[in-house]
C-alpha cells in the first residue's frame, strides 16, 4: 500500500484530493498548519488510513522526523495566487520556495514528488498567445516567478512530475472565492453585475475535481510521465474574461458585465494553453466549464460568506 504525504491537505485542492486518495485505499498523511481554521476533512477522521499532523512545512525539525516515511509527496501547502504573494512576500518565499528547496534536498532518490506549479508562468504568449510546455516562460507575479524557480529544481530530482495547473474553479469543502471563475459567478449570483479590466485577456481553466483526478493519474502512470512537465487544463476553455462572462450570462440572464478602460489588470496574464501533452497520456478532464458554472450557481445560492478568500 502506497504511503502518501499531502501538505496543505485541508485546502481547496487538498480537501478533495485527500478524499480521492483514501477512496483508492492509499495511506494518507496530511500536514497542515490550519491557518484558515478549516474543518474540511472532519468526516474523514474515522478513516484508519488517514493521519493528520497539525504542523508547518517550514518546521524542518518536524519535517525531518517524518519525511522518510512516504513513497509519494504531494506538496500543496503554499500561499497561492498573485495578490496574496504580493501582500505577504516574505511568507510566500519561505513557504512556496525555501520549504520546497529544503524538501528536494532531504528526500531519497526513491521518493516521488508530484508538484503543482502554474501555467501563469507563461505570462503573455507569443504573437498568437499560444503556449505549450516548450514555450518560453515569462512569469510576471512573484507567485509565478517562485514557481518557475521551484520547477527548475524539481526536475533535477529525476523522480518527479510538474503539473502546470490552469486557473482552478469549482466548489470544494475549503472554498475559495478569489479564483477568477468562482469570483465572477459569485458576483453574478449575488450582485448581478461586474466591472472587468482588460476583458480580452485569455487564460485556461480546470475544475478542482479534475485537478485531484490528475494527481491520481500521475500516480498510476508515473513511469511514462516521470521527469516531465504537463499543462493541466480544459482544452475547450481558453477563454477571455468577456467570453467567460458570456458563458455565465447564458445561465444567469440578468447578469450584466461592463469593461472599464480606466484601469489595468495587475495580473497581466494573457495566453492560450495547449493541454495536448497530458491528453496523450490518457488524461482528459471530465467537468467542463458549463457544468462547473452550474455547480457554483447552486452552491452560491446558499452561500453567503465573504471570508473564503486567500487575499
Features:
about 300 residues; alpha/beta; Rossmann fold; UDP-galactose 4-epimerase, domain 1; 2 domains; 11 helices; about 35% helix
SS element count, helices = 11
CATH class of the largest domain: Alpha Beta
Low-confidence residue ranges? none
Strand order of the largest sheet: 3-2-1-4-5-7-11
Count the E strands: 14
The major pleated sheet works out as: 7 strands, parallel
Span between N and C termini? 38 Å
Q: Cα-atom Rg, whole angstroms?
A: 19 Å
CATH topology of the largest domain: Rossmann fold
User: Order of helices and strands, N to C?
Assistant: EHEEHEHHEEHEEHEEHHEEHEEHH
Strand content: 15-25%
CATH homology superfamily name of the largest domain: NAD(P)-binding Rossmann-like Domain
Going by helix content, strand content and strand pairing, the class is: alpha/beta
- Corresponding CATH architecture of the largest domain: 3-Layer(aba) Sandwich
Q: Estimate the global geometry from the Cα principal axes.
A: globular
Helix residue percentage = 25-40%
**What is the number of independent domains?**
2
Mean pLDDT: 93
Please provide a written account of the structure.
This protein has 311 residues and is an alpha/beta fold. The chain has two domains: 3-167 and 207-232, NAD(P)-binding Rossmann-like Domain (Rossmann fold, 3-Layer(aba) Sandwich), CATH 3.40.50.720; 180-203 and 236-300, UDP-galactose 4-epimerase, domain 1 (Alpha-Beta Complex), CATH 3.90.25. Helix content is 35%, strand content 21%. The protein is built from eleven helices and 14 strands. The protein has a seven-stranded parallel beta sheet with strand order 3-2-1-4-5-7-11, with helices on both faces. Helix 1 (14-23) packs across helix 7 and helix 6 (180-190) crosses helix 9. It is globular. The model has no long low-confidence stretch (mean pLDDT 93).
Amino acid at each position: 500500500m502506497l504511503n502518501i504525504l499531502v501538505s496543505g491537505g485541508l485546502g481547496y485542492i487538498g480537501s478533495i484530493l485527500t478524499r480521492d486518495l483514501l477512496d483508492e485505499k492509499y495511506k494518507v498523511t496530511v500536514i497542515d498548519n490550519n491557518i484558515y481554521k478549516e474543518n474540511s476533512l472532519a468526516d474523514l477522521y474515522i478513516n484508519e488510513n488517514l493521519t493528520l499532523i497539525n504542523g508547518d512545512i517550514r518546521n524542518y525539525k518536524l519535517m525531518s522526523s517524518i519525511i522518510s516515511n512516504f513513497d509519494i509527496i504531494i506538496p500543496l501547502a503554499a500561499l497561492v495566487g498573485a495578490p496574496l504573494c504580493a501582500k505577504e512576500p516574505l511568507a510566500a518565499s519561505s513557504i512556496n520556495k525555501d520549504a520546497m528547496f529544503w524538501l528536494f534536498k532531504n528526500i531519497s532518490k526513491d521518493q516521488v514528488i508530484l508538484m503543482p506549479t502554474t501555467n501563469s508562468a507563461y505570462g503573455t504568449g507569443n504573437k498568437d498567445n499560444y503556449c505549450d510546455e516548450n514555450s518560453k516562460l515569462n512569469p510576471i507575479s512573484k507567485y509565478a516567478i517562485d514557481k518557475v524557480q521551484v520547477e527548475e529544481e524539481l526536475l533535477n530530482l529525476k523522480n518527479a512530475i510538474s503539473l502546470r495547473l490552469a486557473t482552478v474553479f469549482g466548489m470544494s469543502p475549503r472554498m475559495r472565492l478569489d479564483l477568477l471563475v468562482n469570483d465572477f459567478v459569485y458576483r453574478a449570483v449575488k450582485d448581478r453585475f461586474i466591472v472587468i479590466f482588460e476583458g480580452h485577456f485569455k487564460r485556461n481553466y480546470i475544475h478542482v475535481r479534475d485537478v485531484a483526478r490528475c494527481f491520481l493519474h500521475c500516480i498510476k502512470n508515473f513511469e511514462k510521465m516521470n521527469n516531465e512537465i504537463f499543462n493541466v487544463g480544459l482544452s475547450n476553455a481558453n477563454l477571455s474574461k468577456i467570453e467567460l462572462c458570456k458563458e455565465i450570462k447564458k445561465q444567469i440572464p440578468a447578469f450584466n458585465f461592463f469593461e472599464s478602460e480606466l484601469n489595468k489588470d495587475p495580473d497581466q496574464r494573457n495566453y492560450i494553453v495547449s493541454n495536448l501533452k497530458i491528453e496523450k497520456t490518457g488524461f482528459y478532464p471530465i467537468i467542463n466549464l458549463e457544468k462547473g458554472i452550474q455547480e457554483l450557481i447552486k452552491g452560491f445560492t446558499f452561500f453567503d460568506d465573504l471570508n473564503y478568500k486567500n487575499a
